[in-house]
Protein backbone atom coordinates (compact mmCIF):
# COMPACT_ATOMS: atom_id res chain seq x y z
CA UNK A 1 0.00 0.00 0.00
CA UNK A 2 1.41 3.35 -1.08
CA UNK A 3 -0.78 6.24 0.08
CA UNK A 4 0.08 9.63 -1.47
CA UNK A 5 -1.34 12.81 0.05
CA UNK A 6 -2.71 15.39 -2.40
CA UNK A 7 -4.66 17.54 0.07
CA UNK A 8 -5.39 17.34 3.81
CA UNK A 9 -8.67 15.54 3.09
CA UNK A 10 -7.82 13.59 -0.07
CA UNK A 11 -5.19 10.93 -0.77
CA UNK A 12 -4.64 8.53 -3.65
CA UNK A 13 -3.10 5.12 -3.97
CA UNK A 14 -2.28 2.42 -6.48
CA UNK A 15 -4.39 -0.76 -6.32
CA UNK A 16 -5.27 -1.75 -2.74
CA UNK A 17 -6.15 -5.19 -1.34
CA UNK A 18 -8.87 -6.29 1.10
CA UNK A 19 -6.26 -6.95 3.77
CA UNK A 20 -5.16 -3.27 3.65
CA UNK A 21 -8.34 -1.96 5.28
CA UNK A 22 -7.19 -1.84 8.88
CA UNK A 23 -3.99 -0.03 7.88
CA UNK A 24 -6.03 2.41 5.78
CA UNK A 25 -8.36 3.06 8.71
CA UNK A 26 -5.34 3.59 10.97
CA UNK A 27 -4.27 6.43 8.66
CA UNK A 28 -7.48 8.24 9.55
CA UNK A 29 -9.20 7.49 6.23
CA UNK A 30 -13.00 7.36 6.48
CA UNK A 31 -14.04 6.50 2.92
CA UNK A 32 -12.69 4.86 -0.24
CA UNK A 33 -13.42 5.52 -3.92
CA UNK A 34 -12.52 2.84 -6.45
CA UNK A 35 -11.71 4.32 -9.87
CA UNK A 36 -10.50 1.07 -11.41
CA UNK A 37 -13.02 -0.98 -13.44
CA UNK A 38 -13.36 -4.65 -12.52
CA UNK A 39 -11.47 -7.06 -14.75
CA UNK A 40 -8.76 -4.62 -15.81
CA UNK A 41 -5.99 -6.90 -14.52
CA UNK A 42 -5.75 -10.63 -13.83
CA UNK A 43 -4.40 -10.15 -10.29
CA UNK A 44 -6.86 -7.37 -9.42
CA UNK A 45 -9.38 -7.95 -6.59
CA UNK A 46 -12.95 -7.18 -7.66
CA UNK A 47 -14.80 -4.21 -6.21
CA UNK A 48 -17.16 -6.53 -4.31
CA UNK A 49 -14.19 -7.87 -2.32
CA UNK A 50 -12.92 -4.35 -1.60
CA UNK A 51 -16.42 -3.18 -0.62
CA UNK A 52 -16.97 -6.06 1.79
CA UNK A 53 -13.59 -5.54 3.49
CA UNK A 54 -14.09 -1.79 3.69
CA UNK A 55 -17.53 -2.08 5.26
CA UNK A 56 -16.25 -4.66 7.72
CA UNK A 57 -13.63 -2.10 8.79
CA UNK A 58 -16.28 0.59 9.15
CA UNK A 59 -15.28 2.50 6.02
CA UNK A 60 -17.67 4.00 3.47
CA UNK A 61 -16.94 2.98 -0.12
CA UNK A 62 -18.02 4.03 -3.62
CA UNK A 63 -17.45 2.56 -7.11
CA UNK A 64 -16.65 5.20 -9.79
CA UNK A 65 -14.90 3.18 -12.53
CA UNK A 66 -12.94 5.09 -15.16
CA UNK A 67 -11.44 3.60 -18.32
CA UNK A 68 -7.65 4.00 -18.40
CA UNK A 69 -6.64 7.08 -20.40
CA UNK A 70 -10.29 8.10 -20.90
CA UNK A 71 -11.36 10.42 -18.06
CA UNK A 72 -14.59 11.92 -19.40
CA UNK A 73 -16.53 14.94 -18.15
CA UNK A 74 -19.23 12.51 -16.99
CA UNK A 75 -16.59 10.64 -14.94
CA UNK A 76 -15.62 13.89 -13.25
CA UNK A 77 -19.26 14.62 -12.43
CA UNK A 78 -19.70 11.13 -10.90
CA UNK A 79 -16.49 11.60 -8.93
CA UNK A 80 -17.79 14.95 -7.64
CA UNK A 81 -21.01 13.28 -6.46
CA UNK A 82 -18.98 10.69 -4.56
CA UNK A 83 -16.79 13.35 -2.94
CA UNK A 84 -19.89 15.26 -1.85
CA UNK A 85 -21.58 12.19 -0.39
CA UNK A 86 -18.65 10.60 1.46
CA UNK A 87 -17.06 11.57 4.77
CA UNK A 88 -13.47 12.78 4.62
CA UNK A 89 -10.55 12.09 4.54
CA UNK A 90 -11.06 10.04 1.36
CA UNK A 91 -8.72 7.60 -0.37
CA UNK A 92 -9.22 7.11 -4.11
CA UNK A 93 -7.38 4.39 -6.00
CA UNK A 94 -6.87 2.91 -9.45
CA UNK A 95 -4.02 0.86 -10.92
CA UNK A 96 -1.35 3.52 -10.26
CA UNK A 97 -3.32 6.39 -8.72
CA UNK A 98 -3.07 8.54 -11.86
CA UNK A 99 -6.76 8.38 -12.80
CA UNK A 100 -7.73 9.29 -9.24
CA UNK A 101 -5.31 12.22 -9.22
CA UNK A 102 -6.66 13.34 -12.60
CA UNK A 103 -10.25 13.21 -11.39
CA UNK A 104 -9.36 15.29 -8.33
CA UNK A 105 -7.49 17.84 -10.48
CA UNK A 106 -10.42 18.31 -12.86
CA UNK A 107 -12.90 18.46 -9.99
CA UNK A 108 -10.86 21.12 -8.19
CA UNK A 109 -10.38 23.22 -11.35
CA UNK A 110 -13.33 25.44 -10.46
CA UNK A 111 -12.07 26.11 -6.94
CA UNK A 112 -8.27 26.25 -7.06
CA UNK A 113 -5.69 28.02 -9.25
CA UNK A 114 -4.08 25.73 -11.81
CA UNK A 115 -0.61 26.21 -10.33
CA UNK A 116 -1.88 25.03 -6.95
CA UNK A 117 -3.46 21.93 -8.50
CA UNK A 118 -0.35 21.08 -10.50
CA UNK A 119 1.88 21.65 -7.48
CA UNK A 120 -0.21 19.42 -5.20
CA UNK A 121 -0.31 16.54 -7.67
CA UNK A 122 3.35 16.94 -8.59
CA UNK A 123 4.32 16.71 -4.90
CA UNK A 124 2.41 13.42 -4.76
CA UNK A 125 4.26 12.10 -7.81
CA UNK A 126 1.64 12.75 -10.51
CA UNK A 127 2.19 15.08 -13.49
CA UNK A 128 -1.11 16.69 -14.54
CA UNK A 129 0.31 18.92 -17.27
CA UNK A 130 -1.29 16.58 -19.80
CA UNK A 131 -4.74 17.81 -18.73
CA UNK A 132 -3.72 21.44 -18.30
CA UNK A 133 -6.13 22.65 -20.97
CA UNK A 134 -9.04 21.00 -19.19
CA UNK A 135 -7.98 22.39 -15.82
CA UNK A 136 -7.77 25.85 -17.39
CA UNK A 137 -11.27 25.25 -18.79
CA UNK A 138 -12.79 24.66 -15.36
CA UNK A 139 -12.24 20.90 -15.54
CA UNK A 140 -14.29 20.38 -18.69
CA UNK A 141 -13.03 19.19 -22.08
CA UNK A 142 -12.59 22.25 -24.34
CA UNK A 143 -14.87 22.21 -27.36
CA UNK A 144 -13.00 24.97 -29.20
CA UNK A 145 -9.35 25.67 -28.40
CA UNK A 146 -9.23 28.72 -30.67
CA UNK A 147 -5.57 28.14 -31.41
CA UNK A 148 -3.36 30.97 -32.62
CA UNK A 149 0.02 30.15 -34.16
CA UNK A 150 3.30 32.09 -34.36
CA UNK A 151 6.80 31.24 -35.47
CA UNK A 152 8.18 32.50 -32.16
CA UNK A 153 6.23 32.92 -28.93
CA UNK A 154 7.83 34.83 -26.05
CA UNK A 155 6.43 34.42 -22.54
CA UNK A 156 7.11 37.58 -20.56
CA UNK A 157 7.53 41.20 -21.66
CA UNK A 158 10.10 42.32 -19.13
CA UNK A 159 13.61 43.37 -20.05
CA UNK A 160 14.45 39.92 -21.43
CA UNK A 161 11.25 39.41 -23.41
CA UNK A 162 11.09 42.77 -25.16
CA UNK A 163 14.84 42.75 -25.82
CA UNK A 164 14.83 39.34 -27.45
CA UNK A 165 11.75 40.25 -29.50
CA UNK A 166 13.52 43.39 -30.75
CA UNK A 167 16.75 41.51 -31.42
CA UNK A 168 14.87 38.86 -33.41
CA UNK A 169 13.03 41.51 -35.44
CA UNK A 170 16.31 43.26 -36.24
CA UNK A 171 17.67 39.97 -37.62
CA UNK A 172 14.52 38.70 -39.37
CA UNK A 173 11.98 41.52 -39.86
CA UNK A 174 9.39 39.17 -41.37
CA UNK A 175 9.40 36.80 -38.36
CA UNK A 176 5.95 36.23 -36.86
CA UNK A 177 6.42 36.87 -33.14
CA UNK A 178 3.96 37.04 -30.24
CA UNK A 179 4.77 38.28 -26.74
CA UNK A 180 2.50 37.06 -23.92
CA UNK A 181 2.23 39.26 -20.82
CA UNK A 182 -0.79 40.51 -18.82
CA UNK A 183 0.90 43.67 -17.46
CA UNK A 184 -0.08 47.17 -18.56
CA UNK A 185 3.13 48.79 -17.29
CA UNK A 186 6.79 47.94 -17.90
CA UNK A 187 9.24 48.96 -15.18
CA UNK A 188 12.93 49.84 -15.30
CA UNK A 189 13.62 47.98 -12.09
CA UNK A 190 17.34 48.90 -11.80
CA UNK A 191 16.14 52.47 -11.19
CA UNK A 192 14.31 51.62 -7.98
CA UNK A 193 17.52 51.67 -5.94
CA UNK A 194 17.96 55.27 -7.08
CA UNK A 195 14.33 56.08 -6.22
CA UNK A 196 14.93 54.73 -2.72
CA UNK A 197 18.04 56.92 -2.51
CA UNK A 198 16.23 60.10 -3.54
CA UNK A 199 17.97 60.38 -6.94
CA UNK A 200 15.29 59.22 -9.41
CA UNK A 201 11.58 59.97 -9.46
CA UNK A 202 9.56 56.75 -9.44
CA UNK A 203 7.53 57.77 -12.50
CA UNK A 204 10.69 57.89 -14.61
CA UNK A 205 11.07 54.12 -14.16
CA UNK A 206 7.71 53.20 -15.74
CA UNK A 207 6.32 53.22 -19.28
CA UNK A 208 3.19 51.72 -20.79
CA UNK A 209 3.74 48.21 -22.13
CA UNK A 210 2.03 49.05 -25.41
CA UNK A 211 4.60 51.76 -26.15
CA UNK A 212 7.48 49.30 -25.83
CA UNK A 213 6.34 46.19 -27.71
CA UNK A 214 8.42 46.25 -30.93
CA UNK A 215 6.62 47.18 -34.12
CA UNK A 216 5.27 44.12 -35.91
CA UNK A 217 5.23 41.99 -32.73
CA UNK A 218 1.81 40.74 -31.60
CA UNK A 219 1.06 41.40 -27.92
CA UNK A 220 -1.20 38.83 -26.25
CA UNK A 221 -2.34 40.52 -23.04
CA UNK A 222 -2.96 37.41 -20.94
CA UNK A 223 -1.45 35.26 -18.22
CA UNK A 224 0.08 31.87 -18.95
CA UNK A 225 -1.50 28.94 -17.11
CA UNK A 226 0.59 26.01 -18.37
CA UNK A 227 2.91 24.64 -21.02
CA UNK A 228 2.43 21.67 -23.36
CA UNK A 229 5.92 21.35 -24.88
CA UNK A 230 5.04 17.99 -26.44
CA UNK A 231 2.34 19.82 -28.45
CA UNK A 232 4.31 23.06 -28.97
CA UNK A 233 1.56 24.88 -27.09
CA UNK A 234 1.14 27.47 -24.36
CA UNK A 235 -2.13 27.38 -22.42
CA UNK A 236 -3.47 30.76 -21.30
CA UNK A 237 -5.86 31.48 -18.46
CA UNK A 238 -9.33 30.77 -19.77
CA UNK A 239 -8.08 27.81 -21.82
CA UNK A 240 -7.00 29.75 -24.88
CA UNK A 241 -4.11 28.00 -26.59
CA UNK A 242 -1.20 29.58 -28.48
CA UNK A 243 0.91 27.32 -30.68
CA UNK A 244 4.52 27.98 -31.60
CA UNK A 245 7.41 26.75 -33.71
CA UNK A 246 9.88 28.10 -31.16
CA UNK A 247 9.33 29.31 -27.62
CA UNK A 248 11.25 31.79 -25.44
CA UNK A 249 10.48 31.76 -21.71
CA UNK A 250 11.36 34.85 -19.69
CA UNK A 251 8.62 35.86 -17.23
CA UNK A 252 11.06 36.94 -14.51
CA UNK A 253 10.81 35.63 -10.97
CA UNK A 254 8.31 35.88 -8.12
CA UNK A 255 8.90 38.04 -5.04
CA UNK A 256 7.67 35.70 -2.32
CA UNK A 257 6.75 38.16 0.44
CA UNK A 258 4.53 35.51 2.01
CA UNK A 259 7.52 33.40 3.04
CA UNK A 260 8.16 35.91 5.85
CA UNK A 261 5.42 35.77 8.46
CA UNK A 262 3.75 39.14 9.03
CA UNK A 263 5.69 40.94 6.30
CA UNK A 264 2.89 41.56 3.78
CA UNK A 265 0.69 43.11 6.45
CA UNK A 266 3.27 45.71 7.44
CA UNK A 267 4.90 46.65 4.12
CA UNK A 268 4.68 50.37 3.47
CA UNK A 269 4.07 51.27 7.11
CA UNK A 270 5.59 50.83 10.56
CA UNK A 271 8.97 51.73 9.07
CA UNK A 272 9.08 48.60 6.85
CA UNK A 273 9.96 49.19 3.20
CA UNK A 274 11.60 47.66 0.12
CA UNK A 275 13.18 49.00 -3.05
CA UNK A 276 12.08 45.79 -4.74
CA UNK A 277 8.61 47.28 -5.28
CA UNK A 278 7.72 50.34 -7.36
CA UNK A 279 5.22 51.68 -4.85
CA UNK A 280 7.54 51.18 -1.85
CA UNK A 281 10.82 52.66 -3.13
CA UNK A 282 9.59 56.25 -2.48
CA UNK A 283 8.71 55.18 1.08
CA UNK A 284 12.33 54.11 1.55
CA UNK A 285 13.50 57.64 0.82
CA UNK A 286 10.77 59.09 3.05
CA UNK A 287 11.97 56.95 5.97
CA UNK A 288 15.61 57.90 5.34
CA UNK A 289 14.74 61.59 5.36
CA UNK A 290 12.68 61.31 8.53
CA UNK A 291 15.14 59.19 10.50
CA UNK A 292 17.38 61.03 12.95
CA UNK A 293 18.22 58.23 15.39
CA UNK A 294 17.51 54.58 16.14
CA UNK A 295 18.22 51.27 14.47
CA UNK A 296 18.01 50.55 10.74
CA UNK A 297 17.97 46.96 9.51
CA UNK A 298 18.76 45.94 5.93
CA UNK A 299 17.96 42.30 5.09
CA UNK A 300 19.11 39.91 2.39
CA UNK A 301 17.53 36.44 1.92
CA UNK A 302 19.20 33.28 0.61
CA UNK A 303 20.21 33.24 -3.06
CA UNK A 304 19.10 33.38 -5.77
CA UNK A 305 17.75 36.91 -5.84
CA UNK A 306 17.62 39.52 -8.57
CA UNK A 307 20.52 41.97 -8.32
CA UNK A 308 22.36 40.48 -5.37
CA UNK A 309 23.88 43.86 -4.52
CA UNK A 310 20.55 45.68 -4.18
CA UNK A 311 20.07 45.03 -0.44
CA UNK A 312 23.40 46.64 0.38
CA UNK A 313 22.90 49.41 -2.19
CA UNK A 314 19.94 50.52 -0.06
CA UNK A 315 22.19 50.45 3.00
CA UNK A 316 24.93 52.55 1.40
CA UNK A 317 22.66 55.25 -0.03
CA UNK A 318 20.71 55.52 3.22
CA UNK A 319 23.89 55.70 5.29
CA UNK A 320 25.37 58.30 2.95
CA UNK A 321 22.26 60.47 3.34
CA UNK A 322 22.55 60.22 7.14
CA UNK A 323 26.27 60.96 6.91
CA UNK A 324 25.61 64.12 4.90
CA UNK A 325 22.94 65.22 7.40
CA UNK A 326 25.37 64.53 10.27
CA UNK A 327 23.02 62.11 12.05
CA UNK A 328 24.87 58.91 11.15
CA UNK A 329 26.40 58.71 14.62
CA UNK A 330 22.93 58.39 16.13
CA UNK A 331 21.88 55.48 13.88
CA UNK A 332 22.72 51.83 14.43
CA UNK A 333 22.98 50.18 10.98
CA UNK A 334 22.68 46.40 10.88
CA UNK A 335 23.05 44.33 7.69
CA UNK A 336 21.24 41.01 8.17
CA UNK A 337 22.51 38.69 5.45
CA UNK A 338 21.36 35.07 5.09
CA UNK A 339 24.61 34.36 3.24
CA UNK A 340 28.12 34.15 4.58
CA UNK A 341 29.91 36.89 2.58
CA UNK A 342 29.34 40.57 1.84
CA UNK A 343 29.56 40.03 -1.93
CA UNK A 344 30.00 36.86 -3.96
CA UNK A 345 32.94 38.09 -6.08
CA UNK A 346 35.85 38.70 -3.72
CA UNK A 347 37.62 41.29 -5.91
CA UNK A 348 35.02 43.89 -4.98
CA UNK A 349 34.86 43.20 -1.24
CA UNK A 350 37.81 45.40 -0.13
CA UNK A 351 36.24 48.55 -1.60
CA UNK A 352 32.85 47.68 -0.12
CA UNK A 353 34.33 46.98 3.32
CA UNK A 354 35.75 50.51 3.44
CA UNK A 355 32.23 51.84 3.20
CA UNK A 356 30.91 49.36 5.77
CA UNK A 357 33.56 50.78 8.09
CA UNK A 358 32.86 54.39 7.10
CA UNK A 359 29.16 53.97 7.93
CA UNK A 360 29.93 51.88 11.05
CA UNK A 361 27.54 49.20 9.83
CA UNK A 362 27.44 45.83 11.60
CA UNK A 363 27.55 42.73 9.37
CA UNK A 364 25.40 39.85 10.61
CA UNK A 365 25.95 36.82 8.39
CA UNK A 366 23.74 33.70 8.27
CA UNK A 367 20.75 35.77 9.51
CA UNK A 368 17.59 34.97 7.53
CA UNK A 369 14.42 37.00 8.16
CA UNK A 370 11.52 34.69 9.10
CA UNK A 371 8.91 36.97 10.69
CA UNK A 372 8.05 40.61 11.31
CA UNK A 373 5.87 42.20 13.97
CA UNK A 374 5.36 45.60 12.37
CA UNK A 375 3.36 47.27 15.14
CA UNK A 376 5.91 46.19 17.74
CA UNK A 377 8.77 46.99 15.35
CA UNK A 378 10.46 43.65 15.92
CA UNK A 379 12.03 41.31 13.36
CA UNK A 380 12.91 37.67 13.96
CA UNK A 381 15.79 35.97 12.17
CA UNK A 382 16.82 32.35 11.90
CA UNK A 383 20.55 32.21 12.52
CA UNK A 384 22.17 29.15 10.91
CA UNK A 385 25.94 29.49 11.24
CA UNK A 386 28.11 26.61 10.03
CA UNK A 387 28.73 23.84 12.56
CA UNK A 388 26.28 25.33 15.08
CA UNK A 389 22.67 24.55 15.91
CA UNK A 390 20.20 26.98 14.31
CA UNK A 391 18.61 29.50 16.64
CA UNK A 392 16.24 32.44 16.37
CA UNK A 393 16.97 36.00 17.43
CA UNK A 394 14.54 38.91 17.60
CA UNK A 395 15.80 42.41 16.88
CA UNK A 396 14.00 45.72 17.42
CA UNK A 397 14.11 48.30 14.65
CA UNK A 398 12.99 51.80 13.77
CA UNK A 399 13.39 51.30 10.01
CA UNK A 400 13.79 48.09 8.05
CA UNK A 401 14.54 47.67 4.36
CA UNK A 402 13.56 44.15 3.29
CA UNK A 403 14.74 42.15 0.32
CA UNK A 404 12.09 39.42 -0.09
CA UNK A 405 12.73 35.73 -0.76
CA UNK A 406 12.54 35.01 -4.48
CA UNK A 407 11.37 31.95 -6.40
CA UNK A 408 10.35 31.01 -9.92
CA UNK A 409 6.73 31.89 -10.80
CA UNK A 410 4.18 29.25 -9.83
CA UNK A 411 3.27 28.34 -13.42
CA UNK A 412 6.97 27.74 -14.17
CA UNK A 413 7.74 25.68 -11.07
CA UNK A 414 4.98 23.16 -11.82
CA UNK A 415 5.71 22.95 -15.54
CA UNK A 416 7.64 20.33 -17.56
CA UNK A 417 10.23 23.05 -18.30
CA UNK A 418 11.47 23.31 -14.71
CA UNK A 419 14.40 21.65 -12.97
CA UNK A 420 14.08 20.19 -9.47
CA UNK A 421 14.41 23.66 -7.92
CA UNK A 422 11.69 25.11 -10.14
CA UNK A 423 13.81 27.13 -12.61
CA UNK A 424 13.75 26.68 -16.40
CA UNK A 425 16.42 24.10 -17.21
CA UNK A 426 18.82 25.44 -19.87
CA UNK A 427 22.29 24.92 -21.25
CA UNK A 428 24.24 27.76 -19.65
CA UNK A 429 26.07 28.71 -22.85
CA UNK A 430 23.39 28.51 -25.55
CA UNK A 431 20.41 29.14 -23.19
CA UNK A 432 18.55 26.37 -25.00
CA UNK A 433 16.37 24.06 -22.94
CA UNK A 434 18.09 20.81 -22.06
CA UNK A 435 15.09 18.63 -22.99
CA UNK A 436 13.18 20.62 -25.62
CA UNK A 437 15.22 21.75 -28.62
CA UNK A 438 12.78 24.45 -29.71
CA UNK A 439 12.64 26.24 -26.34
CA UNK A 440 15.03 28.89 -24.98
CA UNK A 441 15.02 30.88 -21.76
CA UNK A 442 16.70 34.03 -20.47
CA UNK A 443 16.48 36.48 -17.62
CA UNK A 444 15.79 35.73 -13.98
CA UNK A 445 13.69 32.57 -14.52
CA UNK A 446 16.33 30.23 -15.93
CA UNK A 447 18.83 28.15 -13.99
CA UNK A 448 22.21 29.20 -15.43
CA UNK A 449 24.53 30.12 -12.52
CA UNK A 450 24.79 33.83 -13.34
CA UNK A 451 23.78 36.97 -11.47
CA UNK A 452 20.12 37.82 -12.06
CA UNK A 453 20.42 41.40 -13.35
CA UNK A 454 19.09 43.49 -16.24
CA UNK A 455 22.66 43.70 -17.50
CA UNK A 456 22.69 39.91 -17.78
CA UNK A 457 19.47 39.98 -19.84
CA UNK A 458 21.05 42.63 -22.08
CA UNK A 459 23.76 40.11 -23.01
CA UNK A 460 21.47 37.08 -23.09
CA UNK A 461 18.91 38.49 -25.54
CA UNK A 462 21.29 38.68 -28.54
CA UNK A 463 22.58 35.19 -27.71
CA UNK A 464 19.08 33.74 -27.79
CA UNK A 465 18.20 35.71 -30.93
CA UNK A 466 21.31 34.49 -32.77
CA UNK A 467 20.68 30.89 -31.80
CA UNK A 468 17.00 30.97 -32.79
CA UNK A 469 17.85 32.45 -36.19
CA UNK A 470 20.51 29.76 -36.65
CA UNK A 471 17.97 27.10 -35.69
CA UNK A 472 15.44 28.46 -38.19
CA UNK A 473 18.13 28.17 -40.87
CA UNK A 474 18.74 24.56 -39.88
CA UNK A 475 22.11 25.24 -38.23
CA UNK A 476 23.55 24.41 -34.84
CA UNK A 477 23.78 27.13 -32.12
CA UNK A 478 26.27 29.86 -33.03
CA UNK A 479 26.31 32.12 -29.93
CA UNK A 480 27.33 31.65 -26.32
CA UNK A 481 26.48 33.55 -23.15
CA UNK A 482 29.49 33.84 -20.83
CA UNK A 483 27.58 34.49 -17.62
CA UNK A 484 28.06 38.26 -17.75
CA UNK A 485 26.30 40.26 -15.09
CA UNK A 486 26.77 43.76 -13.78
CA UNK A 487 25.99 45.20 -10.36
CA UNK A 488 26.63 48.94 -9.99
CA UNK A 489 27.07 49.18 -6.21
CA UNK A 490 25.99 52.68 -5.17
CA UNK A 491 28.37 53.10 -2.24
CA UNK A 492 27.65 56.84 -1.87
CA UNK A 493 25.81 59.51 -3.80
CA UNK A 494 28.15 60.26 -6.69
CA UNK A 495 30.31 57.11 -6.56
CA UNK A 496 29.82 53.51 -7.63
CA UNK A 497 31.80 50.28 -7.41
CA UNK A 498 30.98 48.82 -10.84
CA UNK A 499 31.02 45.04 -10.38
CA UNK A 500 31.10 43.19 -13.72
CA UNK A 501 31.71 39.46 -13.80
CA UNK A 502 30.84 36.22 -15.56
CA UNK A 503 30.54 32.56 -14.69
CA UNK A 504 32.73 31.54 -11.77
CA UNK A 505 33.24 35.15 -10.66
CA UNK A 506 35.62 35.91 -13.54
CA UNK A 507 35.92 39.69 -13.95
CA UNK A 508 34.38 40.98 -17.19
CA UNK A 509 35.07 44.74 -17.28
CA UNK A 510 33.44 46.67 -20.12
CA UNK A 511 35.90 49.56 -19.89
CA UNK A 512 39.69 49.87 -19.54
CA UNK A 513 40.88 50.46 -15.99
CA UNK A 514 41.99 54.01 -16.82
CA UNK A 515 38.35 54.86 -17.65
CA UNK A 516 36.51 52.89 -14.95
CA UNK A 517 38.30 50.64 -12.46
CA UNK A 518 35.40 48.52 -11.29
CA UNK A 519 37.14 47.39 -8.12
CA UNK A 520 37.19 50.98 -6.81
CA UNK A 521 34.48 53.59 -6.27
CA UNK A 522 34.43 56.03 -9.19
CA UNK A 523 32.41 59.05 -10.32
CA UNK A 524 32.55 57.79 -13.90
CA UNK A 525 30.60 54.66 -12.91
CA UNK A 526 28.03 56.86 -11.14
CA UNK A 527 27.62 58.95 -14.31
CA UNK A 528 27.09 55.71 -16.24
CA UNK A 529 24.41 54.54 -13.80
CA UNK A 530 22.60 57.86 -13.39
CA UNK A 531 22.78 59.39 -16.87
CA UNK A 532 23.59 56.71 -19.46
CA UNK A 533 22.12 53.35 -18.43
CA UNK A 534 18.45 54.43 -18.34
CA UNK A 535 18.73 55.76 -21.91
CA UNK A 536 20.62 52.66 -23.02
CA UNK A 537 17.84 50.55 -21.53
CA UNK A 538 14.88 52.38 -23.09
CA UNK A 539 16.44 53.46 -26.40
CA UNK A 540 18.89 50.66 -27.20
CA UNK A 541 18.31 47.41 -25.30
CA UNK A 542 14.53 47.37 -25.75
CA UNK A 543 14.86 48.37 -29.41
CA UNK A 544 17.27 45.64 -30.49
CA UNK A 545 20.32 47.93 -30.62
CA UNK A 546 22.97 45.75 -29.03
CA UNK A 547 25.42 48.34 -27.77
CA UNK A 548 28.33 46.47 -26.14
CA UNK A 549 26.17 43.33 -26.12
CA UNK A 550 27.17 41.44 -29.25
CA UNK A 551 27.02 37.71 -28.54
CA UNK A 552 30.16 35.65 -28.15
CA UNK A 553 30.72 32.94 -30.79
CA UNK A 554 30.06 29.46 -29.49
CA UNK A 555 33.23 27.41 -29.21
CA UNK A 556 32.64 23.85 -30.34
CA UNK A 557 34.91 21.20 -28.85
CA UNK A 558 37.01 19.35 -31.41
CA UNK A 559 35.90 15.77 -31.98
TrEMBL record:
Signal peptide extent: none
MF (Gene Ontology): FAD binding; hydrolase activity; quinone binding; sulfide:quinone oxidoreductase activity
Listed cofactors: FAD
Domain FAD/NAD(P)-binding: 150-268
Cited Gene3D superfamilies: FAD/NAD(P)-binding domain (3.50.50.60), Protein tyrosine phosphatase superfamily (3.90.190.10)
Span of domain Beta-lactamase hydrolase-like protein phosphatase-like: 2-109
Keyword Methyltransferase tagged: no
GO biological process: sulfide oxidation, using sulfide:quinone oxidoreductase
Sorted UniProt keywords: FAD, Flavoprotein, Oxidoreductase, Quinone, Transit peptide
InterPro entries in alphabetical order: BLH_phosphatase-like, FAD/NAD-bd_sf, FAD/NAD-binding_dom, Prot-tyrosine_phosphatase-like, Sulphide_quinone_reductase
Keyword Transit peptide attributed: yes
Protein name per UniProt: TIGR01244 family phosphatase
Species the sequence originates in: Paracoccus tegillarcae
Amino acid sequence: MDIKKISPKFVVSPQIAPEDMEAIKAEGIRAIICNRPDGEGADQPGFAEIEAAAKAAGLDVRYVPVQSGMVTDADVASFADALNDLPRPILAYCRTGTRSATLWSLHEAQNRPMAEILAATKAAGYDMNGVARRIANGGKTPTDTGDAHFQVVIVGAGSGGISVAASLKSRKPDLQIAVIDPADIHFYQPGWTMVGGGIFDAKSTAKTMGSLIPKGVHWIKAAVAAFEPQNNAVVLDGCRVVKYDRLVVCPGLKLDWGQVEGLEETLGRNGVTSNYRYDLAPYTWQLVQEMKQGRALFTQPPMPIKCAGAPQKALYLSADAWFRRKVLGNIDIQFMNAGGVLFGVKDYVPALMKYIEKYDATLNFFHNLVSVDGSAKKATFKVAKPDTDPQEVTVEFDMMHVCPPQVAPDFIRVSPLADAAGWVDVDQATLRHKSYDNIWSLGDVMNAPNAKTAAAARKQAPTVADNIVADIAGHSPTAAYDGYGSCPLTVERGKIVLAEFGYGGVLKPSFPAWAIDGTKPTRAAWFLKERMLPSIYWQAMLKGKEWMAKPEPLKVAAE
